[in-house]
Amino acid sequence: MTAASAFAPWSPAFVADPYPAYAALRAEGRALFFTPTRQWLIPHHADVQGLLRDRRLGRTYLHRFSHEEFGRTPPPAAHEPFHTLNGQGLLDLEDPAHGRVRRLVSKAFTPRTVAALAPTVARLATELVGTLTAEGGGDLMAAVAEPLPVAVIAEMLGIPEGDRPLLRPWSAAICGMYELNPDEETAARAVHASLEFSAYLRELIAARRGAPGSDLVSALIAAHDEGDRLSEQEMVSTCVLLLNAGHEATVNTTGNGWLALFRHPEQLAALRADPSLLPGAVEELLRYDTPLQLFERWVLDDIEVGGVRIPRGSEVALLFGSANRDPARFPDPGRFDISRSDNAHVSFGAGVHYCLGAPLARVELAAVCEALLRDAPGLRLSAEPRWKPGYVIRGLEELLVEM
Predict the structure, then answer these.
(1) Cβ of 335: how many Cβ atoms within 10 Å?
(2) C-alpha separations of 89 from 37, 83, 85, 270, 353 in Å
(3) What digits encode the pLDDT tens for the residues 322-376?
(4) Secondary structure string (H, E, C) spanning 214-281
(5) 28-69: per-residue pLDDT in tens?
């Protein structure tokens, strides 16, 4: 059996623990073709880092080629609402559009914005953990991990409290399209959610144009650069990306991270004894079991990886989970160590597409950890967790805990 055949993204056993298969991939080579998705798997840290910065690759190819010129079949017309929404967001734009939109969004989503949110994040985390402890435990995912980032993004965007329950289902439906080879039912759900979410945000933008506030939507409307402004579609796509990327990543890092802490009680005890270890612990949670396991890029010009020529028109699958456990970069990479230094994980990406929301994600993760360490000192696992079926965005269905 080849290492590529050990890569089984639709297998529950693989999703529960992909790391032995990653080790086999790294041992076999630097670029391995995976027939079911017609992608080149890239498992080594140095190659993943390098290709994230390589401008011969792109999140899209449509800034340079038509579908036909690139040898690809255009997506079905029925999927257009999803692709319009997704294609105008920072994650899938390439220069010059990417640089322009990122510059404008950065004027609204500043370090000061994140710093101003920190007290709100801490308050929300304390309230959610307080409810969990008052009930003697429960599902950490449903009680704390999921509601916190949704509440924070909703607060940022100025979405009224009564509308916030809409956000999680929309996000989950849209993110289903990021999995490998999504089926038609997944696509239909994503299209429906794209239409509903876009319509909702257009109404919100119209309301903020008439009565600006201190929220991010108002700041996006106001952001300008030498007379240039974001289009309405770019604003809608930016808001959706902030929810989807920020929400899915923070939820799953919280769940995966606390599972790692429960399974390494000596590390949890060290963190409880010395909360100053928290910043380093957050980085280790992100490295050890990253929620984003795979990141796709199109090959716009021929490249070579480890002596293997990968021609234009190909797609590479950068294996973040494997890169974060590469022994060539991390000493004893399978060891969970909250005091690990020089933690150059790739969980937030690299290069021009480095995650704009990384500072906010760190604030949220630290706030949840701090509240749980302080207010639930006896917290422990009460049942073996179940993993969601998704692999690309990998996280727990539930994480049952008790005091």
Answers:
(1) 12
(2) 24, 10, 7, 41, 11
(3) 999 999 999 999 999 999 999 999 999 999 999 988 999 999 999 999 999 999 9
(4) CCHHHHHHHCEECCEECCHHHHHHHHHHHHHHHHHHHHHHHHHHHHHHHHCHHHHHHHHHCHHHHHHH
(5) 999 999 999 999 999 999 999 999 999 999 999 999 999 999
Residue 235: both structure tokens together: 């604003």
Query: Is the link from the previous residue into 96 a cis peptide, with omega within 30 of 0?
Result: yes
Supply the DSSP string of 92-126, one letter for each residue: T--TTHHHHHHHHHHHHS-HHHHHHHHHHHHHHHH
Coil, helix or strand at residue 309:
strand
Distance from C-alpha of 128 to C-alpha of 372, rounded to nearest angstrom: 10
Strands 315-319 and 39-42: parallel
Measured CA to CA, the distance from residue 124 to residue 296 in angstroms comes to 34
Q: How confident is the model at residue 2 (pLDDT cuts 50, 70, 90)?
A: low
- Give the integer Cα–Cα distance in Å for 192 and 71: 28
- Under 8 Å between Cβ of 276 and 370: no
Which of these, 262, 249, 257, 251, lies nearest to 347 by C-alpha position? 249
CA neighbor of 44 nearest in space, from 267, 397, 308: 308
Structural domain total, the chain = 1
Of the chain, the end-to-end C-alpha distance in Å amounts to 45
Q: Which residues span the domain enclosing 87? A: 3-402
Instruction: Judge if pTM exceeds 0.90.
Output: yes
Residue 154 carries which DSSP code? H
CATH classification at residue 303:
1.10.630.10
Alpha carbon separation from 101 to 96, 104, 218, 238, 250 (Å, rounded): 9, 5, 16, 9, 24
